[in-house]
């Protein structure tokens, strides 16, 4: 494979945190930050989440074929609520930051495209463990936003800091939010 990977400094930090974590499960915390802008290669797809590995493999193959330089971890953006949308109707992207993007034109589903991911203010947390239990982290984030007077104003994203076959993969989950004004808080 010819893809060159430039590991972000944040990956090393997260790996150190995970390595230093005690064997017992640590409490999950919600944090806030403004994400960095980035240029990403992406494939938008419609279908069940079980197809993420297949679409990811295709994205990496397209990047390798085109000689693009990967400069960050694999990401996914989710446009529907899986609790209210049939699996075959779910829409999502797999994204990989790149340093040398191609044309940023609109593309159809399942085509390689490139886009600019603008900075976003997010509530975020880390999920350590199998993807089958990630719903707990989403529940935590949405509950935190509701009880702390934040409005969700974008689509959730996952950043995969570990390979999918890791024993306890590390996934960072972003939930774009904005703080409600005093008037908005009065009308919860």
Helical fraction: 10-25%
Order of helices and strands: HEEHEEEEHEEEH
How big is the Rg?
Answer: 17 Å
Number of discrete helical segments: 4
Low-confidence runs of at least 5 consecutive residues? 3-26
CATH topology: Multidrug-efflux Transporter 1 Regulator Bmrr, Chain A
Main sheet: strands, sense, barrel: 9 strands, antiparallel
CATH-assigned homologous superfamily: Regulatory factor, effector binding domain
Give the beta-strand count. 9
In CATH, what is the class? Alpha Beta
The figure for the number of domains is: 1
End-to-end C-alpha gap: 52 Å
Quick one: overall form? globular
Mean pLDDT across every amino acid position: 86
* Structural classification: alpha+beta
Please name the CATH architecture.
Answer: Alpha-Beta Barrel
> What amount of the residues lies in strands?
25-35%
Keywords summarizing the entry:
disordered N terminus, 188 residues, 24% helix, Multidrug-efflux Transporter 1 Regulator Bmrr, Chain A
Task: Summarize the structure in short.
The chain is an alpha+beta fold.
Q: Please, could you describe this protein's structure?
A:
By secondary structure, the chain is an alpha+beta fold. It has one domain (9-186): Multidrug-efflux Transporter 1 Regulator Bmrr, Chain A. Helices cover 24% and strands 30% of the residues. Strands 1, 2, 3, 4, 5, 6, 7, 8 and 9 form a nine-stranded antiparallel sheet that branches.
């Amino acid at each position: 494979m010819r893809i060159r990977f430039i590991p972000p400094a944040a990956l090393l930090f997260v790996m150190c945190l995970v390595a230093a974590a005690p064997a017992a499960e640590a409490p999950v915390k919600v944090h806030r930050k403004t994400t960095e802008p980035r240029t990403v290669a992406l494939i938008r797809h419609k279908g069940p989440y079980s197809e993420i590995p297949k679409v990811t493999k295709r994205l990496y193959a397209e990047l390798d074929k085109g000689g693009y330089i990967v400069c960050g971890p694999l990401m996914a953006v989710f446009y529907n609520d899986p609790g209210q949308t049939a699996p075959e109707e779910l829409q999502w992207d797999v994204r990989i930051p790149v340093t040398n993007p191609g044309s940023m034109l609109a593309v159809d589903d399942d085509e390689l495209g490139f886009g600019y991911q603008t900075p976003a203010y997010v509530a975020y947390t880390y999920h350590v463990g199998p993807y089958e239990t990630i719903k707990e982290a989403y529940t935590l984030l949405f509950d935190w936003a509701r009880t702390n007077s934040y409005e969700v104003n974008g689509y959730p994203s996952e950043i995969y800091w570990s390979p999918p076959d890791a024993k306890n993969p590390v996934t960072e989950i972003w939930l774009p939010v904005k703080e409600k004004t005093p008037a908005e808080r009065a009308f919860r």
